[in-house]
């Protein structure tokens, strides 16, 4: 089945720093999504990407859908303490959605 | 709207017991999903449904059953609980997975299940 490789597994950064994480796959997807999960809660959608090459921003977040349709990255600029959490990428093809293992982000004030 | 609600929040089962995890959404979404999330891992799709009366297997369906008699409800059934089913279970819904702009999945808060 399709596997997503998400990196890094974890990041420890200072408040104000920029963050970058990415996902790669051996298979193509039609949609890439980035979710954030806070402790004890379900994931919440941050950004959805629908076209190869698409670059989309949502506040301090920017994500891109790779041109090969096999990868995506998420950037967070000027991190703040509430950015702490686990970030998941997800690739979707038809009714099948696959998730990466997550990037655990810690922001030190 | 309450969104996606799940009950119970926590449950401990003994090996071989059965239980049903409840999921309800009040957004009139057609699509509903069940995922499991193991420690340090992403979510894996167990079953999904594209509408009332229609269900389909996901990536890891073994040991589970689902039904979708109404648009709102999508219960997940474990018939013979095993330690390998210890996990956090998330239910999600979306309006229409086929329409790229409508496929955002909304997740419930999760059910933490331990099988001893």
Number of strands of chain B: 11
| Shape, principal axes of CA atoms of chain B | globular
Strand residues, percent of chain A = over 45%
User: Largest protein interface?
Assistant: A-B, 26 and 28 residues
Quaternary state reads heterodimer
First-last Cα distance of chain B: 36 Å
Biggest β-sheet of chain A, characterized? 6 strands, mixed
Radius of gyration of chain B, CA atoms, in whole angstroms: 13 Å
Q: Count helical runs of chain B.
A: 0
**Unreliable sequence segments of chain B:** none
Helix content of chain A: under 10%
Overall outline of chain A: globular
Q: Low-confidence segments of chain A, ≥5 residues, pLDDT <50? A: none
The portion of residues forming beta strands of chain B comes to over 45%
Share of helix of chain B, binned = under 10%
**Largest sheet of chain B, if any?**
7 strands, mixed
- Number of helices in the DSSP assignment of chain A: 0
Helix-strand makeup class of chain B: mainly beta
Q: Termini distance of chain A?
A: 40 Å
* Number of extended strands of chain A: 11
